[in-house]
Amino acid sequence: MSFRFIHTADWQIGKPFGNIPEEAAVPLRQQRIDTVKKIAAHARTEKVDAVLVAGDVFDSFAIAEKTLLQTINAMAGFTGLWLLLPGNHDPALVEGVWREMHRMELPDNIKLLDSAEPFVVNEKVVVLPAPLQRKHDATDVTEWFDGYKTETDVIRIGLAHGSVDDRLPERGEAPNTISARRAQKADLDYLALGDWHGTHKVDERTWYAGTPETDRFKDNDSGNVLLIEVDSHRSAPKVQKLTVGHYRWRQLAPQLHTEHGSEEIQRAIVELGEPYDNLVLQLTPRGTASLKTRHLIGKVVASWDALVRYLDYREDQLIGEASADDLEQLGSSGFVGDAVRMLREKAAAAETEEEADAANLALQILFVEHKQLAGKK
Amino acid sequence: MMRIKKIFVRNFRKFLQPVTLADLNDGVCVIAGDNEEGKSTIVHAVRSAFHLKYSTQATQHIQPYNSSAMPEVAVDFDLNGTTYHLRKVFGKKGSAELRTDSNVFMGSEAEEKLHELCNTGTERKETSIWNVLWVEQGTTFGEIKLGDIGKRTLQSALERELGSIVGGTDGQDLLKSVNELYLKWFTATGRDAKHSEHKQAEEHLAQVDSLLADATKQYEELQALLEKLDATRSTLKAHEDGRVEETLSKSLEELHAKKMEIEKQLQAFEQAQQIERAEQAQHTAAAGAWRQRSQLAHEVDSATARLKNVEAKIAEATEAHKGASEKLHTFQQQKEQLDAAYETAVSECESAERLEQLRQLQSQIRELQDHIERALSAQKHCEEIKKEGEQIKADRAALEKVRQTERQHMQLDAQLQAVATRLELRPASGPAQSLLLTERTTLPLEGWGEIVVTPGGGDLDKLTATAQKAREAFEAALAAIGVTTVEEAEALERKRGELLLEYKSWQQEIQKHAPAGVSTLQEQLKLLEGKLCELSASIPDAERGGEQLSIFSLSESAERLAKVRAKRDTAKQAVNQCRTESERCEHAFRQADLQLQSLAVQQTAAKEEIARLTERLTADRAQATDDALFQAVQEAEMKLQQACKARMELQKVLKALNASAIDADIATAERKLADTRAEMQRLREAQSRLEGALQTLGKTGITEEVEKLRGKKEQAETQFARASRKARAIKLLQETLCEAEKSSKQQLAAPLMRRLSPYMNELFTGSNFAFDDDNFSVVQIQRHASEPFQALSLGTREQISVLTRLAFAETLAEAGAPAVVILDDALVYSDEARFGKMQDLLKRAAEKFQIIVMTCRESDYRNMGVPIIRLADCVGLDDSVSRVPTAISLLS
Fold it and tell me: Which ipTM value was assigned to this complex?
């Protein structure tokens, strides 16, 4: 008898995206719940036995009641087992979301694995959960798996949230470490992990599912869930990645050299492909640009800002330099020409980056004002 | 170069009739006229010709009074080699014509051409340069207010000279635009503008920060409640798991059981203490009887020992008494011998002392006798000398008197000689003879008779008599001493002095030997001789030893006496020593005697005490033997030890039970139990309360809110940083632009200042001035101190204003731009000297451009050497018909 399930983690429902303007943050927040619905749909379609959520179901331990109810509702699309594990974002504290869920009349198919006790799915499958009782745990909470014995034909699935020792591209979010050899030592058929937001394979039987809905600009293969099938105890699990994420978080940092900077940016964004309204874009052009080019880049950015979900434009890495053409447009004679020369000298002789930046930006503003006046005439 | 050649005015304010000012001079041109003759109207008319649109409907300011006639002005002027004829008729149906030899511009074209030529301004003509160059009466002393167009005209001229500095209108527009942008961000004083992006970003950040702080506080409260609940649960669990209450109850029961055991042991302990006390009394009694017996026996032994000791001491004292007696006897015998020897020595000493006394008396007598002898001899010499001296009269006073009378006598003789008649007889033979006659003298001449000579002068007789008296006095002084000459007198006085010295010497000798007088010495001698007789009689012959006293020398006698005295002293010392020893022996003897007596008393007392104690001991032993008493003591001691041991064992048991603390322990245990029960009740209540509070707080989604606000704060910080960055840039841009513009203006103003300086130096020698680069005007003059323009006198202000206009006109003229200066009674406040200088400067300036001066004081300009046109002569003249046929035809 095989065990077929979806491994997911780090939903972080209720993540506020406070550093993003509210009009963009609202859909981002809503999407995380919608993605749970998508997972339910996949579970239904794939006819899985259960959906295992390896921690950080919620963004915090004290989530708003409405958010909690929305999440539960989102899971209604799959009537099979939902096994939910507390993570470092939503630890099973003495009071909080987990206790609240205990008090609620949850659907029978939703199980809260908030204590370190085996959950028997059926006589041939057992899930060993390692819930976090606090945000940071100094011990390896999966250690008890080693000592828990089952019949030889029982499929053993571990469910935990934390960082596997030295086996991640970067360290996970929390210092809750998990032995990289846990699956082997505890004779697990599969160890479903959460915490790392990208889909990542630790070994044949140990995987991070990653967050199903990308929530940051890190390019680490997020936006997936894993479809797992274990045929029997000690058989190799079959792992399949299913993409469920909606928003595409992308970072662009084009290096600009020529006066065609605005066109280069335009091209780079277009290359990301349609649809554009699911793009969350961070644009940080680098290099140098003339006053005219910067002026044009500004226009390009403004047009894309209206197209994508959110555009975080950062121009602090782009050094503005007045070109001969800029100067010609501004006029080299008269006191304006003198002022331009003075600003350029200030930028060149500035002792701090801030001073140089102020002088360059002043030139840029002068250029824009000049263009606007010229436009009026 | 521009030159106004002719001005024609008609129907203009006061001029209904035509006025023609023709043949205006190239350089300075003076137009003279009395007050209200119309000079200012002419200026007004010229300004209207250049500035006012011909089609204006506002003609009421230029129309003749009480007339609706259309005002008409025509100006002929040369400009850069071309002669222009300008004629305007003002009003709704007015006309304009600008004509050259080759072209005619009519209406609006004429206006446009005029503007092109003279830059009069199309709309705001009042701001053109001409408004400044053509000065109306009574306005010269005011500040020059150059309008926008005038400023631009001047700037263009300056830029033609310097090249582009200001950057034309684009630069100004850009500056204006940047200034507007700046004012959206900052106030005029450089602070953040109220609704600036920067200010809003800052306020938004503060707002978000405040919200975050509130939310964080709530979150922290939630955390604190969680921790509290966690702690409460843990404590409660620990209490329940550890069965604290049960344990405490059990231990309280144990403590009560222990208390009962302690009470039992305490009873036993008190009984043991009673037994011990009884045994202690028995033992004390037995021990007391035994101690008394022992003490009595000991007293008998002590008394016997004391007796033995006394007897031994008696034997020792008897021996000492005997020795002392013998020693005392020996010393008494020795003392008798020494006393005898001492008496002999004393006798010898006394004899020697008497002999010495006798010898000293003899010596004193001999000495005294010698003194008396010498004193008497000296006395004798004194008497002899005194006698001799008394015979000599020539003492110091007498001698002085002789000398004094001699001097008087000599002086008077000399005076007499001086007045005497000298008579010289010189016989034929024989020596010549001279006579000095001091008195009437008769000189007998043998054979001839006699000659009576009477010396002249009435005083001669008196002088002769005085001289005679002086001589007599002199001679009397000599006679008093007994001599005839002064030398003798002096010899006698010397001798008298010598005798006196000798007398004093002998007197000293007498004083030396007999200071109290010889008779006193003689009385002392008699006294000593008497003492000698007495002493001689008291010394027996035997003592003298048959020797004469005189044979002993002084030293021998003293030596002998010293020996005898030493012998006596030695004997005395031996006697004293012997006496001391004898007294000491006697004292020892008495002490030994007393001790013997005392020891005898002690011996008797000791014997009596032994008898008494022995009797008492014997009686006691008859009642109870020593052994019986000792046995009783030992038995009592054994019983006491047993009782004590029993009591200590019970005490040890009680100590082990810590009996004293049992009540406190029970109280503590009871309190602990009560506290624990209360604490558990409190914890259960607290847990319930906290759970309720957390359920409520947890549902508010405070953590989401905190996270959201954190993000918002990050966003607000980014916005604020961006706004700050932009604010910095805008500020820098505005400051830099202003600085550049200011610098350009300074450059631009330099040529103007260069032209104005010579004029100013000419008029205000040694002064400096400050120039407003923005308005091209003198704002301050520096002479002795800084004087602002407005603080200067009216005269100085009008002079500076005229000179500034000259500099403007010069600048324009040199740049090839039209420039004519018209001054309407511009120098009315200037004093004579300054006025003269101003005329010179006007003439100098007029070499470069035309200056038309309107004045009501013609005489002031007569000596200037320039043509003067009298306005009165020009009124009624109308040569416009012949000169401007086209205009005439238009008007007609």
Answer: 0.77
